[in-house]
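Replying to the earlier thread about multi-chain prediction with a worked example.

Input:
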Amino acid sequence: MTTKEKILETAITLFAERGYNDVSVRDITREVGIKESSLYNHFSSKQKILEAIYEDLIKNFETATVSEEVIARMIEKMTPEEFLTLSAENFDRYLGDPRLIKIWRIISIERFRDERANAFFKKYLIDNALEYQSKVFDIMMKKGLIKAHDPRVVARESYAFMIFIYFRYLEMEKEVDIKEVKQMVLEHMKFLSSALQK
Amino acid sequence: MTTKEKILETAITLFAERGYNDVSVRDITREVGIKESSLYNHFSSKQKILEAIYEDLIKNFETATVSEEVIARMIEKMTPEEFLTLSAENFDRYLGDPRLIKIWRIISIERFRDERANAFFKKYLIDNALEYQSKVFDIMMKKGLIKAHDPRVVARESYAFMIFIYFRYLEMEKEVDIKEVKQMVLEHMKFLSSALQK
DNA sequence: GTCTATAGGAGGATAGAC
DNA sequence: GTCTATCCTCCTATAGAC
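Result:
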């Protein structure tokens, strides 16, 4: 690992623990094993480190995003159970990536003082997901696979639970019991399935 | 309003906007209209102001808490619809109290660096409410008023939505459209009612 | 109870030698 | 690319006059 990478990874760990403001350049360089002044050979300011972390996440999103077309074709073939299982699996993948969890935790902390972080969180972790799920439920209703409802209402019922889990376990617990969380998500999917059954 | 009260109210407003760390004693005293040194005649440190705010909230909780017995008797008489309507009304009352919203927002921000704030939030805004709702649904199931389920699962389905609303609208928006939020809560209650109907 | 003046410390950042 | 030395700014808090 290069010094620059070491700085970035250390910053991610420390920012996720205490937030950007409560971590000093001194804290980072002490952990990395260099002097403060040496850091400025790799990043021109402390702020640039944070921006590099944000860009890391954006890159991650860009590579992970699937085209509208592909999504549309996938949905056409899926049953409600398959869709809910897929959602749960996506969440599980997130739970298995500690570095990604750390970066989202930084966004969580920073969103109170940084409008950019707040907007990013809102868009990528909430509103886009709600819109997507809304489309899926709409198609399923039109195909007569589930009970007729306002699809946006059903999408909120489905996804609000995920946000609750994020809030209560990922943000509020130091150590997450992944098995327990997966169980709760499973129970939610079951409840929703039965509520949507015709 | 005494100077001490002015300091407290100003601190609540500023801490809710930017968090404890990003508000200096200078910021507070500038707003109040006194010099920094004068503040120390009313609070022995900046930290004590935050603690006074926490105590304010705790006092609020103590006066608002109803005994287990009263709750038990209330539940016995309630239909599921009445209970869900009551929950929505409690939430509306919160939405109508800007000072209380500010204080909870401070707790929201501070929970990432202050374990006490985190524990407080977890207990009073989430776990106690979940436990309470769980008891209510259990009684209703035993009385045959709603479909049989694990009452804890139903309580999560019911309350996770409230936390989602808190997260997405109270924490993430500068200006909350209260009418829109009330509408979403209403739609949630309707969905849940129909899902629990025998 | 308010003021002026200042202490004492931590933070981000730069200059310049090696 | 790393180091030592240092700068400047902002912060919380205190001393002591009025």
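The two ends of chain A are 56 Å apart (CA to CA).

Feel free to reuse this layout for your own posts.
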